Amino acid sequence: MNTMPLPLRTALTLAATGVPVLPLRRGKAPFGNCRICIGNACGGRPNMRVPGPCVCPWPCHGWAAATTAPAVISSPAWAAAWRQAVYVGYHPGGAGLTVVDLDNPAAVEWARSALPPTTTVATTRGEHWIYRGAVRSVNGVREGVDIKSTMSYARYLGPGTGPMADVPAVVHELVKVKPATRSAPRTVTVPAPAGGGKCPHRSPVYLERGIAMAEQRITAAASGVHAAVYRTFLAVLAAHGRCGCLTDAHITRLFTAAQAKGETVRHCTDAWANARTALGM
Q1: Which pTM does this prediction carry?
Q2: Given 131, 220, 230, 281, which is the most exposed site by the fewest CB atoms within 10 A?
Q3: Is there a contact between 24 and 84 (Cβ–Cβ < 8 Å)?
Q4: pLDDT at 188 over 80
C-alpha cells in the first residue's frame, strides 16, 4: 500500500512536468518560515530578489519555496509539511504560466466576453483561466479578478480542460494598471516628504531595517493578526510609500510574512489597498 500523502504524490507528478510546487496549509496559506529564516534573517532566496541565498532545507518563504527538485520535495525536511498539507500550490511564473483567477460568476462572465479561450479549471467560487507566458502578478485588476504569475502562487486544482493559449494583450494591459483601492476604516494625514517627494533616505540600510522590523512585527503577532498586518502596512507606507523607494521585492516580503501567519493573498491585498487609501495614496 502506498502511504505517501496525496498532496506529495500530486506535487511530485507536477514537478516532473516542470511545474515548481510547494505545500499549502488550510486556508491556502504557505507554511511559515523556519526559525532560521524568521523575518528573512537568512537573507531570503535568490529568486526573491533580496540579498543572499537561503540554504535552509525547509519549505520557507512562501511562493519562493516552490521547486521542481524531487529530492527536495520528498526530503525529510519537507515531510512534516506534506503530512499537514491540505493543498498543493505552484508558482505559475516559474512554469512560464499565468493564472487569471476569477473569483465570482460576474468575473467569469467578463472573462468569457473579454479573453480568448484557454485551459480552464473550476474553483470553489469561480474559475482559473491558465495561459502560456509569465507576467507581473497583480491582485484586484478588476472586481473579482487577480493575475497570478511571477512572485506569486496558485492552488493546483487539476489539469483543467481545453487547449492552452498565449497570454492575451488584454492581460498584459491589466497588469500595467494599479488595483483599485477600497474604502478604509479611518483617514490618516501624513505630511509629504521633504525635497518635493524625492527619497529622503540617505542609505538603503534605513529602508532594509524598516522592512525587517515590519516583518518581525507581523511574525510576532500572537493575536489580532488582521489588525497587526494592517497597522504594519500602514506604518511602512507612511514611512516609505511616497518616496518611491519601495520595490515589488519589499512588498512581497511583507505579504510573505503575513501569509506565514495565515493571511490569504486577498487579505494582504485588501490591507495594503486600505492602508494606501488611509494615507491618501
Answers
A1: 0.66
A2: 220
A3: no
A4: no
